[in-house]
Amino acid sequence: MAQFAAIAPIGQFTAPFNVAGNPAASIPFGFHGNGLPVAVQLAGRAGDDAGVLRLSAAIEAARPWAERWPSIATEGATQGAREYAQAKGQR
Fold it and tell me: Which are the contacts of 33, defined by CB distance < 8 A and separation ≥ 6?
């Protein structure tokens, strides 16, 4: 239990799987209609880290997100983030 408590703040949704020995990943999946980001959580069989990573890569390839910003971030972003979004051609 102490191990779980130590890692929960940095991975609160994947921590139970990690403590149990199951690989897990939480990856961006897209955006909700309200503009907020949505993620998908994956969990694999114990020892199947490669399977979770393969599926994560396949989802990212099918739904690229790295260059997209949620509308709420670009509307209320700090100056640095706003400049980055403008440099990338986003508003």
Answer: none
Are 19 and 4 a contacting pair, CB within 8 Å? yes
Tokens representing 42 are 């994956």
Q: Give the predicted TM-score (pTM) of the model.
A: 0.58
Which of 48 and 28 is assigned the larger pLDDT? 48
Between the alpha carbon of residue 74 and those of residues 3, 79, 89, the distances in Å are 38, 10, 12
User: 10 Å Cβ neighbour count for 28?
Assistant: 17
Round to whole Å and give the CA distance between 66 and 83. 16
Stated as kind and residue range, the H or E segment containing 91 is none
